[in-house]
Write a structure and sequence with these properties.
Elements lengths: L7 H5 L3 E3 L2 E9 L9 H7 L3 E6 L2 H9 L6 E2 L6 H6 L3 E2 L23 E2 L2 E2 L2 E13 L23 E4 L2 H11 L10 H15 L2 E5 L2 H9 L5 E5 H9 L4 E4 L6 E11 L6 H11 L3 H9 L3 E2 L2 H5 L5 H6 L7 E4 L4 H15 L3
Helix pairs in contact: 5-6, 5-13, 6-13, 7-8
């Protein structure tokens, strides 16, 4: 069974739960410690880095800002500006990253990621967020729309991520907004109202993909707003799961990568060895098999283009897409505060 790859303990405390190479500490989402993804690092140094785990991006930032020391951290793109504004990171030297030019240009398009001062973020992985559902209990027509999350028929049968970014992507899409880089007050209010309705149907907010998969596998919920990996875990356990990426209002995509912490305690050379291992073409297959995500390297994606998991979960769809790219930090903080109120019943 693959559903227990992430534990509540690992996501709740920022301590090295996988102590290995003491000269490189990676602060990451649980599951990404799979050595096959960065195999050349292991081949060169004889061991994996030391890993510490977190459950969501905001938790990770708070722990780093409070003094937890790591060499590299794995946020998603919308968090990069927050780390940079806080003075916690430094640019990567791309002359030390031979495969940097193989990263698809769209992942580097934001000035938050690359500007005149340098490259602040190395994008490595990306995925889709869409409707995971029990194909035996939920008719396909019900998940043809995101309004399934506010349908009284499914009261107490849905699960949403305990992630402000993902729930707001859902709420914006459900209310007709497909670009969150320029949200009006009216669009924000409409999305907040919808999210309050969706909250009434929620049995539980999931903290990580394994928890979401467990909620569905146990029969506690039938529908979830899900990343790729939760679906991969369910498929591995032969759970009857569908992944609807083309409801009429659309679905979202996200991408994540690594930042270089200022004054990290370990070896800077090993930080570059780690990133270079991640950007090798062979990492594409390992990432897909382990997590279910796509790779930002065009060469890595070319090696897995014919994989069923790519065609089913990462291919283009005929529906609107909200790209979870870097957005206004003030707007993101506003969304985070409102989400906390909604979860509390206000």
């Amino acid at each position: 069974m693959r559903l227990l790859t992430t534990t509540a303990l690992a996501s709740a405390i920022a301590v090295p739960v996988l102590a290995a190479d003491p000269e490189l500490t990676v602060f990451d989402w649980a599951g990404f410690e799979e050595p096959s993804i960065f195999q050349s690092y292991v081949d060169k140094h004889g061991d994996s880095p030391t890993y510490a785990f977190y459950g969501d991006d905001d938790e990770a930032f708070q722990k780093i800002a409070s003094g937890f020391k790591a060499d590299v951290v794995h946020p998603c793109s919308q968090m990069v500006g927050k780390y940079r504004d806080a003075g916690l990171i430094e640019p990567w030297d791309t002359s030390k990253i031979p495969n940097f030019d193989k990263i698809a240009p769209e992942f580097l398009a934001s000035e938050t990621i690359r500007d005149d001062e340098g490259v602040w973020f190395i994008p490595t992985d990306w995925g889709a967020t869409a409707i995971a559902y029990n194909t035996e209990t939920v008719p396909a027509e019900d998940v043809s729309t995101l309004q399934v999350f506010v349908d009284p028929k499914y009261q107490g049968r849905t699960s949403l991520p305990d992630s402000s970014d993902d729930v707001w992507a859902l709420a914006y899409l459900a209310t007709g907004t497909t670009d969150w880089t320029d949200v009006t007050d009216e669009q924000f209010a409409a999305a907040a109202d919808w999210l309050r309705q969706a909250h009434q149907n929620v049995a539980a907010y999931w903290a990580d993909p394994s928890e979401q998969a467990q909620l569905m596998a146990s029969g506690a919920v039938d529908i979830a707003w899900s990343w790729n990996d939760g679906v991969v875990y369910l498929q591995a356990d032969n759970y009857p799961v569908g992944f609807q990426r083309a409801p009429k209002e659309g679905s979202s995509t996200f991408f994540c990568g690594y930042i270089n912490m200022k004054d990290g305690p370990g070896s800077e050379d090993k930080a570059y060895d780690f990133i270079n291992a991640w950007l090798e073409p062979s990492a594409g297959k390992a990432l897909l098999d382990t997590i279910g995500y796509g790779h930002t390297s065009t060469e890595a994606m070319a090696t897995i283009a014919d994989e069923p998991a790519v065609k089913d979960g990462l291919s283009e769809v005929d529906a609107p897409i909200l790209a979870q790219t870097p957005n206004d930090p003030a707007q993101r903080e506003k969304q985070l505060a409102e989400f906390e109120k909604i979860k509390a019943g206000f």
